[in-house]
Amino acid sequence: MNIAIIGGGFTGLTAAYTLSKQGHAVTIFEKEPYLGGLAYGFTRPDWQWHIEAAYHHLFTNDRDIISLIHELGISDSLIIKRPVTSTLWQDAMYQLDSPKHLLLFPGLSFTDKIRTAALLGFFKLFPVWRLLERTTAERILISVGGRRAWSVVWEPLLYGKFSTYAPKVSASWFWARIVKRTPSLCYIRGGFHTAVSALEQAIITQRGVIHTATPVDAMKRTGHDKYAVRWGKNQQTFNAVLLTVPTPFAANIAPMIPASYIRPLMRIPHVSAQTLIVETDRPILKNVYWLNVTDRSFPFLAAVAHTNFMDPKYYGGHHLTYFGNYLPDGHPLLSMNKSQVLKTFLPHIKRLAPNARYTIRHTYLFTGPFAQPVHEVRYSENIPPIATPLPNLFMANMDYVVPWDRGTNYAVELGARAAACILKETT
Ligand SMILES: Cc1cc2nc3c(=O)[nH]c(=O)nc-3n(C[C@H](O)[C@H](O)[C@H](O)COP(=O)(O)OP(=O)(O)OC[C@H]3O[C@@H](n4cnc5c(N)ncnc54)[C@H](O)[C@@H]3O)c2cc1C
Q1: Does one domain contain both 176 and 197?
Q2: 147 and 108 inside one domain
Q3: Residue 105: which of 123, 87, 121, 83 has the closest Cα?
């Protein structure tokens, strides 16, 4: 079978890998000049490793991607560490990643701490996520964890991430975040690029074709179960097509998808991700890997010191710190260029670490549209099957990941599931 896969992120790559392994002819179309999608990484001539445009790590229970890494023969690239996660409170950083550190945190009373522990325990043990999908995270966080913990810890994070959508975020999304989190984290030697490259090589070895810098403009149904895929002035006909691009892009490319299928997906709101990476000669943050910035007077939501997780020696001895945000459409930061974002962030970066002495060597700005679907109450009811009502036309993107928060692990699981669905359903 001759199958087109539109989108070369982890979902499209895994689907292509799985199908080509079984002898099917696959062609990937990727708009960007590189593969990897939201997990794409870049490097510099003086670095040994790539780094992701947006901060990435794995949890130790991310079984699907970890199994794929073993299968691709790059097991020795997995690194497991326990880096420090902290929270900024009243201009000071407090480690807040274990029961002991919760007890030491001065922002909550003893009763608030007991309630917060009860809240986390409740989520860890609650077995039926579908019940939690019927109510909001805000309601459960306040009723179980209490108002003080809500305003000090949870509200700034939830509203910082989802802005006006925050009150509608379902408790099942929050449940998934807590259940999945592991104290130790994994990284991939060389960056996630190592896994992307290994997938690319395996697909090519299995006779798959990969077109990068090739945005698909449109598709046309050319028979009962055949589709012509058009890019620029070129066109090619396929027996089956899998769309892994964000839903609004898929709706543009394939307007023949029935409204009854795509309309519920189109109702899902998304926020964009923006990261500013600051490369310095000395560290900005000491010891901390992940800093949740709960003070909303800061113009960013998280500071992620990648080189407090991985050794700076892989990046020319320099230190790399991300300053990240999730932003709704129309947010002023989305229309700023790199120097404007840096100028906006600099006074606050200094405020985070007033005594740190460093020189900025380079900065990098990235924006990912549709980077995070908002899991509102009853989210899963919007998610259709991977097989669309049209024969041999399939869709699988981040929106299809439920109840878990999207991530490369779920993109791998989804890509494999999409491949199985294509093999089962194609005529
Ligand atoms: C800030 C941030 C932090 C994250 N942190 C983590 C983390 O720590 N760990 C983790 O596992 N995951 C993390 N993720 C999530 C992870 O990156 C995604 O879940 C995963 O990469 C999604 O893969 P995908 O293939 O489904 O989608 P995408 O990566 O979005 O792939 C879709 C692809 O389609 C392409 N495309 C779009 N339009 C067209 C077109 N017309 N023609 C051809 N191609 C097209 C795009 O260029 C893209 O490559 C993070 C994401 C963000 C934004």
Answers
A1: no
A2: yes
A3: 87
Name the pairing type of β-strands 2-6 and 240-243: parallel
Ligand 1 centroid to 255 CA: how many Å? 22
Together in a domain, 215 and 236: yes
Look at the chain and report how many structural domains it folds into: 2
In sequence order, what are the residues at sequence separation of 6 or more whose Cβ sits closer than 8 angstroms to the Cβ of residue 42? 34, 50, 51, 53, 364
Q: Closest residue (by CA) to atom 33 of ligand 1?
A: 7
pLDDT of 427 > 70? The answer is no
262 and 201 together in one domain: yes
Q: 152 CA distance to ligand 1 centroid (A)?
A: 31
Task: Please report whether residue 281 resides in a domain.
Answer: no
Ligand 1, atom 6: nearest CA belongs to which residue? 56
Q: How confident is the model at residue 224 (pLDDT cuts 50, 70, 90)?
A: confident
Cα 220 from Cα 43, distance rounded (Å): 38
Centre of ligand 1 from the C-alpha of residue 242, in Å: 16
For the Cβ of 370 lying below 6 angstroms from any atom of ligand 1, the answer is: no
Cα–Cα distances in angstroms (integers) from residue 339 to residues 8, 284, 319, 362, 408, in the given order:
30, 19, 19, 11, 30
Contact 120, 324 (CB under 8 A): no
Q: Decide: 325 in ligand 1 pocket, CB within 6 A.
A: no
Which of 140, 158, 180 delimits the end of a domain? 180
**Could you tell me the distance, in angstroms and rounded to a whole number, from the CA of residue 224 to the centre of ligand 1?**
31
Is the distance from the beta carbon of residue 417 to the nearest atom of ligand 1 less than 6 Å?
no
Neighbouring-strand partners of residue 322: 277, 304
Percent of the chain beyond pLDDT 90? 98
Q: Does residue 30 carry a pLDDT above 90?
A: yes
Residue 19 is predicted with a pLDDT of: 98
Task: Give the pLDDT of residue 355.
Answer: 94
Average pLDDT, the chain: 97
In the reported structure, the alpha carbon of residue 411 is separated from the centroid of ligand 1 by a whole-number distance in angstroms of: 8
Q: Is residue 83 part of a domain?
A: no
Q: What is the mean pLDDT of residues 190-212?
A: 98
Domain enclosing residue 142, as ranges: 98-180
